[in-house]
């Protein structure tokens, strides 16, 4: 059995169309939407609306962790515009293209920049969407939890720690834990380019210690200090920043 795993697709529909080649199934750990590309500030919903110069400034402020100034810049730009409608229109254009690129079968969960409310409109019959739920693939039980935890970034699908922990607990015994965010381990949460710690889940780390799955698979941290480590019986793997690599991570058994 061979499964390909991707995360942080961020608009890369071209490579997504090929991500399932040679695999029995594709797993997607979320972040389909591209709001702003930190490597190419001309790509994404934000520069489409406000231009590259404003995108440059926003990235500069966020990278410096000057979140209040970044928020103030955004508020000025959005003044007089229907923010929700404009963002939703951009996301819908991306979702139409990205969901059409998913092979059959695909098992997917949400990232922190996704809009779960729109997924039922675009997920086709070959795509199974799971959040706090399990699926059996090739004799192994996979548990899926999507979204991220609350941060100053205020991305669209951030939930409180208690709700996230309840979703992890609802999975029970699984062979493979599939989440968007990593367990709360500093080496797995630190982004070496953004030069900051992303939020990891303490509940996920506890489940790794107690449930002892074979694998914990995740994304979210685009350039992690450590991509892979063993915690007890569990191999913890950041499957990679698919938006830039275009290459899925492979799990075979």
Automatic annotation (TrEMBL):
A GO biological process held by the record: cell wall modification
Database matches in Pfam families: Metallophos
InterPro entries the record matches: Calcineurin-like_PHP (IPR004843), Metallo-depent_PP-like (IPR029052), UPF0046_metallophosphoest (IPR051693)
Calcineurin-like phosphoesterase domain: residues covered: 1-224
Molecular function GO terms recorded: hydrolase activity
Protein name per UniProt: Icc-related predicted phosphoesterase
Species of the source: Streptomyces iranensis
Source organism phylogeny: Bacteria, Bacillati, Actinomycetota, Actinomycetes, Kitasatosporales
């Amino acid at each position: 059995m061979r499964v390909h795993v991707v995360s942080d697709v961020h608009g890369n529909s071209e490579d997504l169309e090929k991500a399932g080649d040679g695999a029995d199934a594709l797993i997607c750990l979320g972040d389909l939407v591209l709001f702003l590309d930190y490597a190419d500030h001309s790509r994404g919903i934000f520069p489409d609306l406000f231009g590259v110069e404003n995108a440059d400034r926003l990235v500069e402020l966020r990278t410096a962790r000057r979140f209040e100034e970044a928020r103030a810049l955004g508020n000025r730009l959005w003044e007089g515009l229907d923010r929700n409608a404009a963002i939703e229109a951009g996301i819908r254009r991306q979702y139409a293209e990205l969901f059409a690129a998913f092979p059959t079968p695909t098992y997917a969960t949400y990232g922190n920049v996704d809009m779960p409310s729109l997924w039922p409109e675009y997920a086709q019959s070959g795509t199974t969407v799971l959040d706090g739920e399990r699926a059996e693939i090739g004799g192994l039980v996979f548990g899926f939890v999507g979204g991220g935890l609350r941060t100053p970034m205020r991305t669209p699908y951030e939930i409180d720690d208690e709700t996230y922990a309840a979703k992890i607990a609802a999975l029970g015994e699984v062979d493979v834990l599939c989440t968007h965010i990593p367990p709360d381990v500093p080496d797995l949460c630190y982004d070496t380019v953004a030069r900051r710690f992303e939020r990891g889940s303490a509940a996920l780390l506890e489940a790794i210690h107690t449930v002892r799955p074979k694998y914990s698979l995740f994304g979210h941290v685009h350039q992690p200090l450590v991509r892979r480590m063993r915690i007890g019986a569990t191999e913890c793997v950041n499957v990679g920043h698919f938006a830039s690599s275009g290459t899925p991570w492979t799990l075979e058994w």
